[in-house]
């Protein structure tokens, strides 16, 4: 199909598609003349993925490019790439004191060791967790008990996530499901969590939003 | 303290503090002369909160202003405000087909009814969940089983979150903990989830990141 048809099928404007092509978020079409390229269903699928990662995952363009490169590689380090997509692992945050982050990192490493999680020493998620722990401390909230409870919950979630990935048809599909499930799953979980928080509040304090 | 001292204590540059004051993220100091104001420890604390919500929570300025107004009000609708802080509830997303979102919304409402969650009919989290479900569908991933598993997990998380809030000293502190815990908690959970995903992958497929 021509670029106009790709635009029609996906609802993405032609100039935006051209921008994604330039940014390497979308592989080039097959050239049929010096000025024209042909696109196929894989472009449609890839374009939809880019849009939801931008819109729902709120990922920066550079992070999406990383993820897509990983999807296309024969032997990708998916965990490392997905870790880099975490909100915090995008460079030093000056909102938290580096010394506080360092102490939090020690705490995270201890948690991983105690739970015997097989997680790379340099996994971005370790640093991301340390930064958010430091942020809790910075605003004066004691997160000790919560950390352990969340770690329990995370173990359950990951088991579900692996089942989800296992429902893909083939190896390529599994990688695709891993990316989609990780990024969109964060948001799904956050939305469900808001609802259950409201429910728990209503039970405990009788605080309610609008009419249930 | 003067604005220079506020800057020193928090590490936030003076021009940035002035910007936050103009944007209503920080309450005005007490005027000591036409050109000078005095700030106190509440400004220090508020400034730290703004920074972590921006940096770690990655919230837009307008959302943070909403949250802070809620924190300052005598009888705030916290759930509604926290729901609006969800990644998706920031206006219609053109990456997902409105009809698909509508169908997903029906599914979310059914889930809430079946689980007898006390959640406002117009809670932003309902729509947020519907949009992310629609996004899963849009990229061809079947999320049916996962949704139910995540709903179970969310119930556990919310119970922990309420315990966390209950550890605050007073009513004002509880509200503060609710905001901090909700926003930073999403990121903490995401980071822990990446680690447990890596661990589960390593167990199941022998896939590992760098040396454990």
UniProtKB/TrEMBL annotation, chains A, B:
| HTH merR-type domain ranges (all copies) | 1-70
Q: Which InterPro entries match?
A: DNA-bd_dom_put_sf (IPR009061), MerR-type_HTH_dom (IPR000551), MerR_fam (IPR047057)
Q: What is the lineage of its organism?
A: Bacteria, Bacillati, Actinomycetota, Actinomycetes, Micromonosporales
SUPFAM superfamilies cross-referenced by the UniProt entry: Putative DNA-binding domain
| UniProt keywords, alphabetically | DNA-binding
Gene3D superfamilies hit by this protein: 1.10.1660.10
Q: Please state what the protein is called.
A: MerR family transcriptional regulator
Organism, as annotated: Dactylosporangium darangshiense
Alphabetical list of CDD domains matching this protein: HTH_MerR-like_sg5
């Amino acid at each position: 199909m021509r670029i106009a048809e790709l635009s029609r099928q996906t609802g993405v404007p032609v100039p935006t598609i051209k921008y994604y092509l330039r940014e390497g978020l979308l592989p080039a079409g097959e050239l049929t003349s010096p000025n024209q390229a042909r696109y196929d269903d894989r472009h449609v699928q890839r374009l939809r993925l880019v849009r939801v990662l931008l819109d729902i995952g709120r990922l920066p363009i550079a992070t999406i490019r990383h993820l897509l490169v990983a999807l296309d590689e024969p032997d990708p380090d998916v965990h490392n790439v997905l870790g880099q997509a975490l909100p915090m692992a995008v460079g030093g945050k000056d909102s938290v004191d580096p010394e506080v982050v360092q102490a939090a990192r020690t705490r995270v490493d201890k948690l991983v060791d105690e739970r015997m999680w097989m997680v790379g020493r340099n996994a971005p998620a370790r640093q991301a967790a340390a930064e958010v722990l430091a942020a809790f401390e910075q605003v004066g909230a004691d997160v000790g008990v919560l950390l352990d409870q969340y770690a329990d919950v995370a173990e359950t979630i990951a088991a579900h996530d692996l089942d989800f990935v296992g429902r893909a048809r083939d190896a390529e599909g599994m990688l695709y499901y891993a990316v989609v499930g990780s990024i969109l799953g964060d948001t799904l979980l956050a939305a469900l969590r808001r609802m259950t928080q409201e429910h728990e509040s209503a039970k405990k304090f009788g605080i309610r939003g609008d009419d249930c």
